[in-house]
Design a protein that fits this description.
Layout lengths: L15 E5 L6 E2 L2 E2 L3 H15 L3 E5 L17 H11 L3 E3 L6 H9 L5 E3 L14 H8 L4 E4 L21 E3 L1 H15 L5 E5 L8 H8 L4 E4 L4 H7 L14 H14 L2 E3 L3 E5 L8 E5 L8 E5 L1 H13 L2 E5 L12 H12 L3 E4 L2 H9 L8 E2 L3 H8 L13
Parallel strand pairs: 1-4, 1-7, 4-6, 5-6, 7-8, 9-10, 9-15, 10-11, 15-16, 16-17
Antiparallel strand pairs: 2-3, 12-13, 12-14
Helix pairs in contact: 1-2, 6-8, 7-8, 9-10
Length: 394
């Protein structure tokens, strides 16, 4: 892999540094309710401040219309929270490239912090529009990208700025790339990949990529029912993608030819409706009732998967085994999380719902690495070039 340029190679002292972070955090009543993403950005922020940068932070929050200021998507609560965590003032700009941002950026002293307002308040951000990007670039002299969670987006603040300013990766970005690329380029074997989630269509590229790297692929979640259809099984009213049945057949065949063990569930928890109070039972995958839907993998599947996970030297997990947000259907995902936490091998969680599940079960500190970007980590594992990463490579 080409070398990634990092902040330690940049001359930031006394310079205005535009740093893209991922502060897309949950808010309630104007207060940050989970600051995991803010905490993840702190090593980069502190390094830049310790080296007397004039630090200008940027981020998006939520999905505003892109036609101007929207109170519920303002980054003001993030500025307040960041000030507390850093123990110093964080100046908040009223806009992104307007007069207030320009004046506050110009007035910034060494070791001071300015947070620009939500970059997505301007629809040109997502279009990587030159008129917006060039104005944004005028605020700084150096560009640092530490927002891995948005690295698969070709937006002005995540990719475009690298055309105007010397570009470097922050510590979070560097660690994400090194861990995920290291897993793919030099995995320790046995390498076990666990894939869940609802759709086969979301994971085709990932499965094909992992077949070249992994020894075993464990498939759970809603997407396993499309594989069952490919095997000629009856799946009742379970989630399915008819148009992906042939693809699933092809993937099963490909795994066999490659000598990769692709394991599907052997039992599932079925329900009469998609609800917390549904009537449920556990059945073999060959005996799914016509009027019921599978919403979790069963205990025998957990045992089967856990036996593979236990032997692994590397485990990569993306996607839950069932509807873990509902109590009756959380056991499969929790069982797999227990097995991943217990293995002596390296454990890498590919962001998204898997990270949310691990957090729900209070197991985050038992995993070696949890990616901050579900979509970005999947595209990287698939072998795609990430627009936010390419400009940072030598």
């Amino acid at each position: 892999m080409p070398n990634i340029r990092t902040i330690e190679q940049a001359d930031v002292t006394g310079k205005r540094v535009l740093c893209r972070c991922d502060f897309n955090v949950p808010l309630k009543d104007g207060v940050v309710t989970d600051d995991l993403r803010i905490q993840a950005a702190l090593p980069t922020i502190k390094y830049l401040l310790d080296h007397n940068a004039k630090l200008i932070l940027m981020s998006h929050l939520g999905r505003p219309e892109g036609t101007g200021y929207e109170e519920k998507f303002s980054l003001k609560p993030v500025a307040a929270h960041l000030a507390k965590v850093l123990g110093q003032d964080v100046v908040m700009a009223a806009d992104t490239i307007g007069e207030d941002a320009k004046a506050k950026a110009a007035a910034l002293g060494d070791g001071e912090v300015l947070l620009l307002e939500n970059v997505r308040f301007d629809k040109r951000e997502k279009k990587n529009d030159e008129s917006f990007t060039s104005e944004l670039a005028k605020l700084g002299e150096v560009y640092v990208n530490d927002a891995f969670g948005a690295a698969h987006r070709k937006h002005a603040s995540t990719a475009g700025l690298a055309d105007y300013l010397p570009a470097y990766a922050g510590y979070l970005m560097e660690r994400e790339i090194a861990t995920l690329k290291g897993m793919l380029d030099e995995p320790k074997h046995p390498f076990v990949a666990i894939l869940g989630g609802s759709k086969v269509s979301d994971k085709i590229g990932v499965i094909e990529s992992l077949m070249k790297k992994a020894d075993t692929i464990l498939v759970g979640g809603g997407m396993c029912f499309t594989f069952f259809l490919a095997q000629g099984k009856s799946i009742g009213t379970s989630l399915k993608e008819e148009e992906q049945v042939e693809t699933a057949k092809r993937l099963l065949q490909k795994a066999e030819e490659a000598g990769v063990k692709l394991l599907l569930p052997v039992d599932v928890v079925v329900a009469d409706k998609f609800a917390e109070d549904a009537a449920t039972k556990t059945v073999s995958v060959d005996e799914i009732p016509d009027d019921m839907m599978g919403l979790d993998v069963g205990p025998e599947t957990v045992k089967l998967f856990a036996a593979e996970i236990e032997k692994a030297a590397t485990v990569f997990w993306n996607g839950p085994m069932g509807v873990f947000e509902m109590k009756p259907f959380e056991a499969g995902t929790k069982g797999v999380a227990d097995a991943v936490a217990a293995t002596a091998g390296q454990t890498i969680i590919g962001g998204g719902d898997s990270a949310a599940a691990v957090k729900q079960f209070k197991m985050s500190d038992q995993m070696d690495f949890i990616s901050t970007g579900g979509g970005a980590s999947m595209e990287l594992v698939e072998g795609k070039d990430l627009p936010g990463v390419v400009p940072l490579l030598d």
